[in-house]
Design a protein that fits this description.
- The chain is an alpha+beta fold.
- It is 28% helix and 29% strand.
- The longest helix is centred in the first third of the chain and has 15 residues.
- The protein has 2 domains: 134 residues, Aminopeptidase, CATH 3.40.630.30; 149 residues, Aminopeptidase (3-Layer(aba) Sandwich), CATH 3.40.630.
- It has a 7-stranded mixed beta sheet.
- It is built from 11 helices and 14 strands.
């Protein structure tokens, strides 16, 4: 095929074609349905700003998409404007024509022009190789903490996606309590440690958008006097999974212990940085790292000169909610 490929900025009227492209290229899952509502939440309603979005066309047909979600990371008192490289799609009939690379390089120029300083993401192994050829650097693995429940793992697998209230009946659904985000926002602004590191600022608007507003993922919280555990259910290879997406507050130990103790999942999973209250709480609840296993691998590409060494894993203080697929 020798048709000319035209790259331009995304327009709102492109949405039906873009959704069809995402379904054809990336597929869907019970947790991640490629709906107009999810696209609106992710790329338009984001409190950090509208995403950088470019499309590739052939004969007025959309065959490629590149998006950078606008994001922020704080490092002490400093705020870094970021982009998260998500939702890259090329129509199966147009692969190996340089669309992914061209869209990405042009999107970097747009991101730089609007003041974005850093792009980061956690691509799969196949995509990571492509990013590394375009100036991204491998930061390192995002280590997970796991607690299996052996008696449940011995049972047969699950066919249906679990609801959170089936796994942790005591969890308060975010979307059913409009006050929840505001009540725990002050805890989210500081993680209870003296360590500096790159992390998403936990403002009230962010917490409401991130956990209460998601169109398909249902988040809940176990709230205790000094901390909160933010949870969601997942199904992975037929096994039910309790995901501890975040821990807020100076001491979330009791909240995480309560969630793990009552969990009816086959296993529980979390990500917290070394030295953080969330990490200490998860370890205290019996969650352990699995040597050699990393569910995610972080890559980054500075777009501007930064004083922070973003390619050093010690510069990052990420929870699972900072990096899990949205």
């Amino acid at each position: 095929m020798g048709e000319a490929i035209h790259v331009r900025m995304y327009r709102d009227e492109d949405l039906p074609a873009v959704l069809n492209l995402l379904r054809a290229s990336l597929g869907e899952s019970p947790l991640l349905q490629r709906t107009a509502e999810l696209f609106q939440w992710k790329h338009i309603d984001n409190p950090f700003g509208r995403s950088v979005m470019l499309v590739a066309e052939v004969d007025d047909t959309v065959v490629g998409l590149r998006t950078f979600m606008q994001w922020q990371l704080d490092y002490g008192a400093d705020i870094i404007r970021c982009g998260r490289a998500v939702d890259t799609a090329t129509h199966p009939g147009y692969v190996r024509r340089g669309i992914f690379r061209r869209l990405t390089m042009e999107a970097l120029d747009v991101a730089r022009d609007i003041g974005i300083q850093l792009i980061f993401n956690t691509p799969n192994e196949r995509s990571r190789a492509g990013y590394l050829t375009m100036g991204w650097s491998d930061v390192g693995p995002v280590r997970v903490l796991v607690r299996p429940h052996p008696t449940r793992l011995l049972r047969g697998g699950h066919k249906q996606f679990p609801n959170l209230d089936e796994l942790v009946p005591m969890a308060t659904p975010f979307e059913s309590d409009s006050r929840l985000a505001a009540e725990i926002a002050d805890w989210g602004l500081a993680d209870g440690s003296n360590h500096r590191g790159l992390r998403t600022p936990r403002s009230t608007s962010y917490l409401r958008w991130r956990f209460a507003g998601h169109p398909t993922a249902r988040y809940g919280a176990v709230v205790r006097s000094a901390g909160t555990a933010v949870l969601r259910a997942n199904l992975r290879k037929g096994r039910s999974e309790l995901v501890i997406s975040d821990a807020l507050g100076p001491n979330p130990t009791e909240a995480i212990r309560s969630a793990v103790r009552i969990s009816k999942a086959d296993y529980d999973v979390a990500v917290f940085p070394p030295g953080s209250p969330g990490r200490r709480a998860a370890r205290g609840a019996g969650m352990l790292t699995v040597p050699g296993i990393a569910a995610l691998r972080l890559v980054a590409r500075p777009v501007d000169v930064l004083e922070i060494d973003v390619l050093n894993t010690k510069s990052w203080r990420l929870a699972l909610s900072d990096v899990e697929l949205l």
